[in-house]
Design brief:
Marvel, MARVEL domain-containing protein, 139 residues, transmembrane, mainly alpha
């Protein structure tokens, strides 16, 4: 649930404002993993894992782990992009600067990206611990 909330926060923060260049990658990662996480959540909630071809049944916990690994791996460069863009716009954070400034927007997006990455890493550790103990269910 946290991944969905933080991913939506990142998506809305970026999409509601002007963005360009490498921010497209961050938006791609946010939207892709928001949609995938939402789909995995509903499939698990409805207990329909067996209906998913190639990934269902006994492979479902491993598929969730692979999803968490991919999400964490792609959110790390997204965090880097947002930190870089935030630092590039740090000049307009002064009170005397009267023009439109993206600094606070990029800073908020960087925080959401970091929270998403932490949530996916926590889910990864939790899933790996459950898998090591031999538990087959996600919940």
């Amino acid at each position: 649930m946290l991944q969905i909330a933080f991913g939506a926060g990142l998506w809305v923060t970026i999409a509601a404002h002007k963005y360009e260049g490498s921010i497209h990658f961050v938006l791609f990662v946010a939207v892709l993993f928001w949609l995938l996480t939402l789909a995995l959540f509903f499939v698990t909630l409805l207990d329909k894992q067996d209906l998913v071809p190639l990934l269902g049944g006994e492979r479902w916990p491993a598929a969730n782990l692979a999803h968490d690994v991919a999400a964490a791996a792609l959110y790390l460069p997204a965090i880097g992009v947002m930190i870089y863009k935030t630092e590039r716009n740090a000049y307009c954070n002064l009170e005397q600067y009267k023009h439109f400034c993206l600094y606070k927007i990029y800073l908020t997006a960087a925080v959401f990206a970091g929270l998403c990455c932490v949530a996916y890493l926590a889910s990864l550790v939790y899933g790996a611990c459950r898998r090591c103990r031999g538990e087959q269910t996600i919940i």
